Amino acid sequence: MAKTKELSKDVRDKIVDLHKAGMGYKTITKQLGEKVTTVGVIIRKWKKHKRTVNLPRPVATCKISPRGVAMIMRTVRNQPRTTRDDLVNDLKAAGTIITKKTIGNTLRHEGLKSCSARKVPLLKKAHIHARLKFANEHLNDSEDNWGKVLWSDETKMELFGINSTRCVWRRRNAAYTPRTPSPPSNMEVETLCFGGVFLLRGQDNFTASMDGAMYHQILGENLLPSARALKMGRGRVFQHDNDPKHTAKATKEWLKKKHIKVLEWPSQSPDLNPIENLCRELKVRVAKRQPRNLNDLEKICKEEWDKIPPEMCANLVANYKKRLTSVIANKGFATKY
What we know:
The chain is 49% helix and 12% strand. By secondary structure, it is an alpha/beta fold. The longest helix has 18 residues, at 212-229.
C-alpha cells in the first residue's frame, strides 16, 4: 500500500475549526474531501495535546556510552583491520553487550566505513624525497618522451588466483593517506615469476624465475629484440626498479656496453610504473582461466599477455602526467595508481 501524503498545517487547523463549529466527522469529511479516519486522528490529537502539528519523535538512546565510543575509535584508529566481532568482544569484556549492527552504525556515525585495504609500499623519508624529485623533474616531459620508455617489471603470478583483500575501517577519501597503508602480503603460494615490457605501440614479454645471472640472460635475449620489434628507434630509455640485481655493477656495465640509457628511478614507486596496471590486468585474465599447474600457468600467461590491447598501453602512456601530479599533490606518498 502506497504511503499517503501528510496533510498541511492549514488543513489540519481547518478540520479543528470546523469541529469547534459543531460539525461532525462525516460532514467535515464531505466538505474537505478527506478520509473519516484522518479527520478523526487529527481531532483526537488536538483534544489530547491541544496541537495539530506532529509531536517530536523520541530519540533512540545510544547503547554505547561516550567512553565506549572513544574506545572503539581508538582501537580502529590504531588497528584499521579490526573486525566488528573483535569490537563486540572488547566491549563485552568492558561490561557492555551490543550487536555487530550497533558497532557498524556507530562507526558510520563517526564518519568511518568498511573498505578494501590498499596495498602500498612502506615509504621512508628518503623514498618520499626521491619520489617528489622525480615527479617535479619529469612533470613537463612530453607524451612522446614517455612513449620512448621501455618499461619493465617482475611480478608473481599465482596458480590459485589473486590474493584476497581484507577490509579496513577508514574515512572517505583517506585510502592513500600515510596512516592507512596495508603492508604487502607475504602469503606463500605456488607461483611463476613473470616479467614484461611494454610501450606506446604494444607489448612484448619474457618469462623466468629471476636472479642476477638470469636477469643478465633476459636482458641479452629480450631487451634489444623487444625494442626493435616495437620499432622504438633512437632515444629509447630503459626503465627498471632498484632491485639489487638491477643495480649490480655487472648489470650497469652490461647496459653501458650496449649503450642503453637507463631511467633514474625512485625506490618504492610501483604507482609510477604503468606496467603495474598491465600486470594487474594480466592477473585478472589468468585467474578467470583457472590454470591447473605451473606449465598451464605459463602458457596462459603468454596467451593472455598477447591479448592485452595496445590501446591500453597507449592510454597509460598518454595519462602518465596524472601520476606525477598525484605524487606531488599527495606530498610524495602513495597514490591511487
